Amino acid sequence: MSTPVKKVPIHLQSSQNRLLLKHGKVVNAEGVKDADVYIEDGIIKELGKNLIIPGGTRILDVRGMYVMPGGIDPHTHLEADSVTGQKASDDFYQGTRAAIAGGTTMIMDFVIPEKEESLIEAYEKVRAAADPKVCCDYALHICVSQWSDKVQEEMEELCSDRGINSFKMHMAFKDLFQLSDSELYSAFSKCKDLGAVPMVHAENGDIIDENIKVLLDKGITGPEGHDLSRPEIVEAEAVNRACVIANQL
User: Fold this and answer.
1) pTM of the full structure
2) What integer pLDDT is reported at residue 4 of this predicted model?
3) Which of 27, 100, 106, 161 is the most exposed place for a label (fewest CB within 10 A)?
4) Tell me, which fold does domain 71-201 have in CATH?
């Protein structure tokens, strides 16, 4: 027979899960105001002055400091492999540790499947790399770099079973990630059906590809060629085209 678990009275619980920030300047959507913040089990429970709190609560005097929500970085590429074979210098441990040091408490990274790789397999690969290392909350965007019935089915599974609600489509990187306009339309439509958020890398990949050929013929192979191959109008055209496609749905 198992022994019933006794609930420990709150005044005997470890003070490590209860924290009061006193005399700070709280910054939120309403503006800046002087207030105390009571936190329990990592959740903000009360905000105000002269709060009644449990005994044993750890108290920090943050007089003269700003108290604000942790930042969310919605676009990171930790441990990512580039199209040229280089790897990001920060892994999930180093990157998220640095994020926390700077006040960012959540990141959103990307799952970028290799050519012909399953979205689910790519997702599991990134989870296996990130889960043992991350120091803060994180979420994942899934890149859709090809279009098929299988991709649609996997998008459904990712949303229903794995909590994914954001998919990224590329309008550039020809022969690697770039989707056609009709595929973009279908991907947007699927996102709408799933209640997911579509996002795009908005550059005209066909024009960039032609510009690169011209620059290489001129002997321009340095980093300046990157900027020259994709003038602002190439991005503006793609942004407008993505909006036009989305507005058809």
Assistant:
1) 0.81
2) 43
3) 161
4) TIM Barrel (3.20.20)
